[in-house]
């Protein structure tokens, strides 16, 4: 059989657990600890530090230790929540920047990694430690996430698990996992046949409230509420600020001071859960290496928490109101997350629900991991992870999808020695840092054996389901019945021997917020309203159309959030661009089908007009709206330039500009390009500006050389001719450096001419190109002829008169230039209502 690891991937701490003999058990890490800090670091020699090692290194190298990455996973740089989270970080935390696809990157050592890659490194370590502790391989995982995570975060966590070498069998909301762990049974402790349960989950970085209904063989999530930026780390920040206020002007700007103060705040918070006063000593402190000692009282801490406590209570009351329940209707309140150990938090819940209702029976730090292990035991089927495969309900005993042969077991992985991101074994080069991985092989697992409880044979493989001698059932990966002691097969929610209830069953989940499609007016057509149970059947929309505009490409952008009137205020889930060979001349109907699977993954199918049905695979790496808008503006300017000067642009210029245009067009449609965005837009602007200046300087220098005969000295005319030719030579080769040098030389020569001569030359050329209205054009051409006659006669006074006349006509001509048409800018469109 294939064992599945249950993982609580936490903001501050992570825990791994499995079902052993039908009972959830935490697997200790290599240090013997039940939890592993969710921290990664690089020491002074470049070695990877994980968990406790990284936390211990933070005082010495705070800028090389990553913590709280869960707050950033699956989010975009321009997300308001991301910016709030970054502001709350210590000032000496590792650098963070916008990535090429508009998301977030964090520096680890010499490399910038995505939150997915950072989480994959942590998950890989949890996997290694769990396998060494259990003695069995874990190639599948159930990973938990906050209930208020949006679909992009679900997907990001699943991707991190895949990178770490797991087939992620299920992504489970943390409150649901916690309810599994508590095993709430109707009829126990005075609860009714169907119990109403509220899960209060306050972890290190997130806060969730879930209202559940649990009965015999029945488990449903009714309502969700929460805050993805509220948790223990925010309480640390409050104490951090409080400590700084106590320094009485003492210098605390020394290297590492910010991390030492934050660490002291974290320790004080933990100590104040069990004592009234926490003594704090900080040394060294400041650039001169001083010290500070003081005390923090619980009463002071609780005053600091007043606003956060109010927010939490409002969230609880909101969830109850949406669920049409009163506090007295709740039979049990389950406490989950280390921050629920804070006395003020518990007191507030007891005040609202009563002492007997608030449950303390399970360690809140271990509850979620225990529940993830229970969920693994409840799984009876798997879905194929291939995006194009629709096979569902695959038995958990299967190694691969029967429909498309996609493996249902995680791949063996190796750790990249350069950036430490896991990669599949036999990968030639690291996809992140290009380090050669061809010689690396996955480490072998130390195998252990299982003793048969019936005959005593002690060399059965740990993964065996029956004894080799007596065929007695061994650990079959399912739950143990508390009534008869039977260890059941995976996928059962009641005992196969006595029919006893396990106290939990696979839960019917609900969406946290609205999920919908962006329309061309900026609103959202809601596909799945908040609170909708999933997985869903196909939901059909027939009242959409595709506007007849642009090049025929249609953008499907999906958002999740509470703002149906403004898509941009919500969280971007993913996008897809349907490209057509020909544009649409008129509006056509759009038929759309949508569904949510068991992991809250969004699947779209659509048909434009009477065409074929297509399936949309949402791309997560879509560029931000701001970048897309800037790219669209630049793309339009490129089109205008090539249209207006198509006869003058050299083949080399045309090729270079067209290549940049392709990237700009891709970005303008919201899709990521195949190369870094770092400086791409600036480079595109510089290229267009250089080509524009080079064309202009060529034209002006040539014009001056031709029209300035007898008006300008012969040596200057020759310089102008040579400068124009030098620019053209560089343009023919599209040599940017040479173009820049030659262009600046031609521009200097042009601007150095007598202003009256420059104005006259330009005014005459505009008239010759029919750029002025007819009357003005005739006057300019008459002045031109008079000037030429004066030049032929060498009559300087007459020349001056005509130059002044041309200057006056140039002033009249300002604002009277004939309109120049510009081509229609092609672009993709969003769907709209019929």
TrEMBL record:
Pfam families per UniProt: HSP70
Similarity comment: Belongs to the heat shock protein 70 family.
Protein name as catalogued: Hsp70 family protein
Keyword annotations of the record: ATP-binding, Chaperone, Nucleotide-binding, Stress response
